[in-house]
Amino acid sequence: MGRMIFGAALIMCAGQALAGTAAPTEEMIVTGVRTSSPLVIVTDPKSPRQPVPANDGADYLKTIPGFAVIRKGGTDGDAVLRGMAGSRVSMLLDDQVVLGGCSNRMDPPTAYIFPETFDRIEVIKGPQTVAHGPGNAAGVVLFEKDYTRPVESTWNAHISALAGSAGRNDQVIDASWANPDFSVRAAVTNARAGDYKDGDGVRVHSEYDRWNAQLNLGWTPSGDTRLELGLARGDGEAAYADRAVDGARFDRDSVSLKFVKGQLEVQGYYNYVDHVMDNYSLREPAGMMANKIAMNPDRKTTGGKIAWSLDESSELDGVVGIDWQRNEHSNRMTMNEDAMPYEALPRTPDSHFSQVGAFAEIGWNLAEARRLIGGIRVDQWNVKDFRNQVALSMMMSMPNPTAGQTRNSTLHSEFIRLEQGIGEAGGLHATAYAGIGRNARHPDYWEMIAKESAQSISALDVRPEITNQVDIGIVFRNERLSGSVSTFVNRIDDFLLVQNNYMKGSRTASVTRNVDVASWGFELESQYRIADAWRVEASLSSVRGTNRTDDSALPQLPPREGRIGVFYENRTWSTGVLYRAIADQTRVDIGKGNIVGQDIGPTEGANIVSWNAGWRPGKAWLVTAGIDNLLDETYAEHISRAGAAIAGFTQTTRINEPGRTFWLKAQLSL
Known about the structure:
The protein is mainly beta and 670 residues long. The chain is built from 2 helices and 37 strands. The radius of gyration is 24 Å and the shape is globular.
């Protein structure tokens, strides 16, 4: 059955490619995001989406072929692009780096991103840019706000409210006022939900309550000069079904300053995350953890960027500059909150990471329909290990063999890509591309400090990860058809593999190992407009990989997935049905994976049907509704975390996805 579904999706994509392209625009309800240019995808986060996303940065990416999300509860998932997670996929908020505090990824960067307060989400796939910081072996996700200097005083606002199953209740207000000289933009979000139920009616420990506030103040004395101050504050709590503690605090403070003068842009930022995990705020302590236990990691990240954009009027365009960041991490914990509150304990620093990079990314218009893009960056990394002891468990530690040591590394990354426009026969506009990139990724905190190595209880000596990748594809459109084909193949030397239950003498440990791997895959997407009001959308994505060192499958890769949707939409009404088919995943390597999760075992495929409808009663109003997982299928994403034993809840092999989910959203745009 699954093979037939995927075959149908592939045939549809191929058949449409013979037919012809509607310009890539988003509809009332976003169910699939289309590639706008080679390896670049842009989507509007203010548009309603199906399946309805959680109020965080990861779930909004589910509608993009090639993305998957590792579920841990009701929110704060980890995004995975082409099977790669963690710092292989950077998440930047207006070019700012935000890193979480938990050593077990309870609060990834996406936990501090509230997408509906931004104007654009831009995804760049593969190691095909160097202008957005280091790493980014699989790609980079940019959450961005736009600003255009008005000629007179103006104001606008985006207001939305969402209600749904499991007590889902979200509100967003994003309002701005500007004249030619000054601007003010303020945004507030609030989101809460109770425990959802899977398709079998089993309750999942997943409630959450999050809020966020942002303020941007701008001064624009001339058409090419702008100074902007940004402030942000947020907090909340969230239950987790994959571990023995929940998130009791997600406190984030942020300050940023940006100056633009002509082609020059200078930016600096400060982000502080104060995170609390405990076993008593959202659950009852039980079993071996009957005492009230709390952990309070924090992280301060500072950084900036100086960039000079080349004049686009010439044959050359691009950007050159430098960027830098520094993050300082510390922790404190108590095994008995009543007898020894964590708030009274001193913080103990464990590491400082710093990076300074220089980059140049240039585009050259070789001919009217031919373009060459290339870039290079060099990064200097410095890491200091402050740990005197390395915790082997919650009850045991040993002296750290790398205490007080400093590690310095110089890494370089580069890419080149050729884009070629193809003739307009039959009204078809197409751009083919081929690129090759080399990316050097420094080990991150979770690989270097939060894990041991195979040879030592400290992983300070693990080697950087080197990705060499080829990307080949085509983007096409005509009056009725739009779509793209993206393929990639890579070889990754010294891939940073995380392995659980690694035997070290008489005990087991979670370690980071350097291994050599390879992966390959594709994303196909298309939209065919049958008539003015009717359209069909289809997508198919696949990634496979091999661990050449261990002669095994590359772990934590999502299975092949296809989507087919049929939609009707006019200026006032819309409705549609979306069918998602997930294949079995039998290529696993149990106990191995990445900093977020490890393979548990094979998974069965699933077939999910969803329905949505929209009504636009006026130019400013939009009301949308939907039923996700209409048939109440019980399933779990292959890469999701294992279920934990929690008092009052049924433990499952993996955290199951929500069952039938009803939602209703109203939004006003002024």
